[in-house]
Structures are given as C-alpha cells and as structure tokens.
Amino acid sequence: MKKLSSLVFAALMIGSLSSCGNNQNDDFTPLLDRNRECIITINGDYSNFDSLQTQINGFRKYYGNVKIEYTKLSNYFTDIVNRLESSEKPNIFFATSAMLNDEKYATVVAHMENLMDPSLNLNLDCIRSGLINRKYTDKLLIVPIFARTYGMLVNEDLFKKEELEIPQKWSELLSVCASFKEKKYQSPMMGYTAGTDNCFMNTVAYPTFVIDIANNQTALDYANNKDERAGEYMRDALLKVVTLINNECINMELCKDIGDNYGKVISKFFDGDVPMMIGTAVTASGTKSREKDSKPFQANPFKYSFHPIPLNEQGSYFIDSPALEFAVNKDAENLDMTNEFMRYLLRPQQLKATAREKGLLHVVKDVQDNPMYEAFNNIPVEHIYSPEVIGISDDLAVQIKMASYYVGKGTYDIDAAIANYGQFVDAKK
What we know:
With about 425 residues, this protein is an alpha/beta fold. About 40% of the residues lie in helices and about 10% in strands. Strands 2-1-3-10-4 form a 5-stranded mixed beta sheet. A 4-stranded mixed beta sheet has the order 6-7-5-8. The relative contact order is 0.20. The N terminus is likely disordered.
C-alpha cells in the first residue's frame, strides 16, 4: 500500500465534510418495488448486534415485506469459507483486510462485490478516507461500518476526588500515576495481561510503533517484511511498556485476576478503584450494557469516558482503524435489494446511529458525537494516523504484539525482543 502522511490523511478526512454534511438529514428514497418480498441474510461473529437490528427495522419502514436475518457463525473465519459455497450463502458478511491478503480466503474474496461500482449509488464519500481499504485502486471489496482505536477508560470521579487532571503528555501520565500511588491506589492503571490479544502491552506499544515508523518508509518496509532490521524501531514502544511496569503505574500481579480482555476488564473497571483501565474502543463499547450487571457500579456509579493514552511529550494520538467491515456477496440471490439495504445503511445518520448504539466510534467524516469518545475530537489533525493509509501489514502487527507481550511478561528483555523481530509467531488466547 502507498504511504501518506498523517497530515494528508487528516485533510482527506475533513476535506469533503461539506458534501457529506449536506445530505445528513435527507430522507431515504427507495429505488425498488416497495412491495417486494424477499429475504436478505447477514453472517458475522458478533453475539450481540442489536444496533444492526435497529437499522433493519428502519429499512423495513420502506420495504415492509423484506426480511433481513442476522446469523452468528460459531467459528466464523472457518465457517464463512464453507458457507459462501453452500446453499446457505449470505448476502452480506463480515470481512477484514487480512482476508484480501491471505490465499486461504481466495474463494471468499472471489464472492465479494465491487462496492465502488457507481451504479450502486453508495455514499462512500461520507466515510473517512483513512478507513477505506487501499489494496486495489479500481475496486472496493469491503466497507467499514464501525471504527476503533486504542486508549484507556478513565474514572473521571476519581480524578476529581483526588484533584488530578487527566494526563495529556507522557510525563503527565507518569506524574499522575505517582500521585495516585501516593494516595494508596494499588494500580493507577490496569489492563488485560493473561493473553496476547488486546493485552495492555500491545495497546501501549502498537500505537507507539506506528507513530515512530509512519513517516519512515525504510523502517516501514523493514517492519512489514519482518526484516530483523525493524527490531530497533520497536525500542521506544517496548520501553514505554517497561516504564509503566517499573514505575508501578500498573501492577502486573493484580492484573492477573482479569480473566479475559472484554467482560472481565469492564467488570474490574466498574469496581471503582481503578483510575485508568487500558484497552481498546471495542472493550469500551461494552461498558454501557454492563453497568446494570455490576453491583459495585450500581451501588456507587461514577462518570467515565474513553481517552487516548498520551504516548510522548507531543500529546495524544488517534490511531483510526476499522472495527467492523461488510462485504456483499455478488453471487447471492436478491442482490439488488441487498445493495438497496447497503445504500440505506451507508448514510451518515445511519452510520452514526448504529455506532452510537453499539458503543463504538462512527466512520463518518465528522466529529464523534458519542460523549464516551469526546476526547478524540480534540486531537490535532497531525496526530491522526490510519494504518490503512500508512500501509501497516498484519505481519507487522503480530511482531509488535508478541514482542510487547513477552517483554511485559518478562520472557524477553528489550534487546532480546528487538533481536527476534520477524521470528515471533501469533499466539492467541
């Protein structure tokens, strides 16, 4: 993929806001027979997709005889390969950029419709350019529905109680952690450490690594190709992980009790004694629905929000990535009505509404309207980075994830991890 600077990306993001915004309140105009009867199926790996059902209900106000059914596949990334070749092939399915680069998904990619086809009349211009997959210049096979980023859940009431400010720089983060420690907080920051996916180590290291190599094409090429020479460029990212541990900003022993990277993280945060819980927006998206399940939170509710982790003295950064992407099966029945539903969904007001209900960042070229993510609206344009635009490979992501995890766990020191760049194998838990 071709690399662009973050400043160019930001310009792309905000450049066509006017064309996007002018249509935000327009009513949807049906283009097909409104009495049409048919079924559209959607396959994915979300257990809870109520926000999609809300959009389905809205679409059925125009097409009352169209049924749209969502099915969660138990082993999605294996099942979808077979499902697309069966009589139960879906009209729409979850997809990722990794599929486009992996030969084992060649048959899946072969079913994907070109969403860039102008005859489909999809409002792709309203989606942030940095979220659009750039593998091909003449076609678009997957489209982002939700966005995600890296950061920390912040207990605002604890900051207010202790008369501390939410940190905006790396030095301020270390200082505020020291202040919480003086006030007898056992672990000012916490996060998931039992496995590699969404572990606190990667949530700190990956954005740092991306920022450090984004404007260095040589380093980026080394890293994407798993060249051992990329290892040295990880040093700053790995040092930040070690610094948080050595400065007792995060208590690794206490973090062992967090049994998974989603529900247990939220549950611990809702205990109310953790000022900052490191995680991704995907984890943050589950907080609202889990408030009622937390006895400590119900007994002592507090105000919280999601903030970027300040990674250096220049401030905070927004790593803007897709959280969910859809592909359309060009070989499914009722393709015209499927595209009509996509045309309904890919409008600013619908994309915003479904993201807000799901609790994730929306993908529209506009400010984030969910108060949970308000802090990201204050990030300067030169601090917005998109892995899709920069050209971050899956191999690179695995190397920094595993290196940071092993360093955080003490399996490797920083120099050993650097020396092993390119040799790490993904080990999901």
